[in-house]
Specification:
Elements: H1 2-21, E1 30-39, E2 44-48, E3 52-73, E4 76-104, E5 115-146, E6 149-180, E7 186-188, E8 197-202, E9 214-229, E10 232-243, E11 265-268, E12 272-275, E13 282-299
Antiparallel strand pairs: 1-3, 1-13, 2-13, 3-4, 4-5, 5-6, 6-7, 6-8, 6-9, 9-10, 10-13, 11-12
Length: 300
Amino acid sequence: MKIFKIFVTLALAVASSAVANAQEPAPGRVVVKAMAEIGLTDGMSLSSDMNMTEKKTSTNNFGLDLGYKFWAHKRASFDINAGFGYGVIRNKLGVDDIQYSYHADPDADQDGNSYVRYYEVEGIRQNVETKSYTVPLYLTFNIACCEWLTFHIDAGAQMRFKTSSKVKGSSANYYAYGIYPEYDNLMIDAAWLNNFGHNRMEDAPTSNVVTNSLTTSLIFGGGLEVMLIDPLWIDLGVRYSSGLNDVFVNKYSGDLYSSSNNVPMSYTVANGETVNSLTGYLTKSRLSGLSLRLGLVFRF
């Protein structure tokens, strides 16, 4: 939010200066924009009841916007714009040094016994990729600085319709052992039984990522359009996104270690060791970041 306030202050200062020295706006009421956005800062605001030691996000968007200049007066004009695009969100999540236990049913023991399963997890790392169709709707305020240069400010909203979300890579280091109450609390950590002992898992089987099918963000931005050859302009600017709802669904709120379904890692004889998607432990997962915006603009 601090970045956004600084950006707005600078944008208003540039706009005031441009109005004082601007010329008549360039003709052309229909605007077609081929745009690409590349994340400059961490792309999401993430929170969790679990102490996550790694929470990084990168975002990229590509799309085509169509605009119409509905008002113009001397140096200034307004466009209304709508578009369609494709966006990718990549998250790197990790936890370290967590310990827990849960009651393991007979299906988690090769001999069919119930016991208490203990974990000492040294670390879990996951890469998650979410792909979406994007639909922006925004207003653009233009100020013609000269015949070949225009300054603009954008404000509006963007919807994301999720097409896929999955864990692209998952690894875990852990130590596991069992306490068997019916055998006078016998402790077993032998590697040949129930995946006990010290283990490292690469490409670990991971539960599905659960996301909201639709997320909405407010978008604010600005930049400069420079004419190459009329009617072709190049656009260079920045855009700030502020999410209104979460990208990921919080599946494991409350007591994180209340059952084998809630814990980060669990075991059954049939399925072996399974790691839950760390996105399910996020209590907040909203887009919040600054992007570099590049594009080609056709004004007709």
